[in-house]
UDP-glucose 6-dehydrogenase (Natrialba asiatica), 441 residues
Amino acid sequence: MHVSIVGSGYVGTTVAACLADLGHEVVNIEIDENIVETINAGEAPIHESGLAERIADHAGTNLRATTDYAEVRETDATFLCLPTPQADDGSLDLAPMRAGAESLGRALAGKPTAEADEDDHLVVVKSTVLPGTTEGVVGPVLERESGTEIGDGIDLAMNPEFLRMGTAVRDFLEPDKVVVGATSDDAAAALRELYAPILEREDTDLVETDVREAELIKYANNAFLASKVSLVNELGNIAKEYGADAYDVLAAVGLDDRISERFMRSGLGWGGSCFPKDVAALRAGAREQGYDPDLLDAVVSINDEQPQRLVSLLEDHVSLADARVAVLGLSFKPGTDDIRKSRALDVIETLRNRGATVVAYDPVAIENVRTHHPELDTDPAVEFADSPQDALADADGAVVATDWPAFDDLEFDEMARKIVVDGRRIEVDPDELAVYEGLTW
Ligand SMILES: NC(=O)c1ccc[n+]([C@@H]2O[C@H](COP(=O)([O-])OP(=O)(O)OC[C@H]3O[C@@H](n4cnc5c(N)ncnc54)[C@H](O)[C@@H]3O)[C@@H](O)[C@H]2O)c1
Ligand SMILES: O=c1ccn([C@@H]2O[C@H](COP(=O)(O)OP(=O)(O)O[C@H]3O[C@H](CO)[C@@H](O)[C@H](O)[C@H]3O)[C@@H](O)[C@H]2O)c(=O)[nH]1
């Protein structure tokens, strides 16, 4: 198929490169010219395993990028992979979706469709949006701007994305499920065709449902996972009070296959570009519907407290005023340079508020912190190190904030007789350290 992808961020770039890899003809429509140039130069605009190779393989042949929306007219289907950020009041900010849908609608105006014996143009919302958004907001904007009706020239579907950062390419190509909420049989059939090589996999389920349910499945999925992590963090906090090792306890609990051992790592809590904003949007949406999501409120407050707890644990052993503290890891999880809502940034802020000097290291995310957090880049009490060893040298204490595999092999010799608070339970052997406070709260 000939596919256009609107928005070339983490999702749009991954989807585009993977669909190109599956043999489709793909064009990315993106407002950021730097991203467009990067993709057309055959390079990846983000750090994601397996992405750069795919872009290098397909750029210039069946993958390219442009700022020009008119190119959607040459395609059969358009995926909207636009941001759906959190507004200041926690609710879902639909401004980027509206703007993208307007530009798309205008570009589709007058495109030959059914009457000219052409198929309807399929528009697929891939962004995470609350129930009612695809049919109640995106559809009407498209109709208004294109002068074409949904079901009579434009087909509409919702196809949420479940990929994780760090494993985005693999998750997209080998998903547990593909969820399709279509407004017509043609739309559902087109998506089945597009995803055929993925749907042939034994381990991938196809869920065909209505649009509203497809929208809600995405939020329910993320709410469930965020709640699981907050629950293991609460159990971890309780374990710490009893002097028990949370990881041993949770490993045993996870043997119950109703629970599973996955997503059971207690520590600094959840961050990233999805869980925080999606849980916030679901809570705000539920309240708007007249329902108080008490459990999700608690899930968030437990998560908010974890960085403070970690720093307090360090403070039990190190007087933080004027201390030099190494922070290992800045990205919100390993395998990505994404620092959105990274718990490491909360740790740094807390350490700074308590008077400590921070020396931070991350294998790939330092540049993003410098660019997106100028207040840290210009803070004389925040330094960035070239290696974990440099960060640890002369430090009075250290925090492991991201579980990068490279940290497993770290020699903590420099830290002998000092405190390392491991916020992610990396594999370092506590016995190798003179003093080691494994984080098991
Ligand atoms: N990041 C993830 O892991 C992930 C996974 C599943 C679903 N999602 C959802 O997918 C959506 C996109 O997320 P993301 O992380 O890729 O966002 P992102 O911010 O990384 O990328 C969005 C891109 O859209 C571009 N853009 C903004 N307005 C535009 C417009 N009018 N026209 C063209 N391009 C425009 C931006 O420049 C940016 O490059 C969100 O709804 C998110 O919740 C994200
Ligand atoms: O046992 C665990 C597992 C995760 N985390 C933290 O939880 C956050 C989110 O992790 P993860 O889910 O792996 O990353 P994301 O890339 O944000 O992916 C989530 O958000 C995406 C965007 O909606 C969805 O597509 C994915 O299915 C969903 O897992 C990170 O800060 C992790 O460190 C823990 O603290 N303990």
Observations:
- Confidence is low (pLDDT under 50) at residues 434-441.
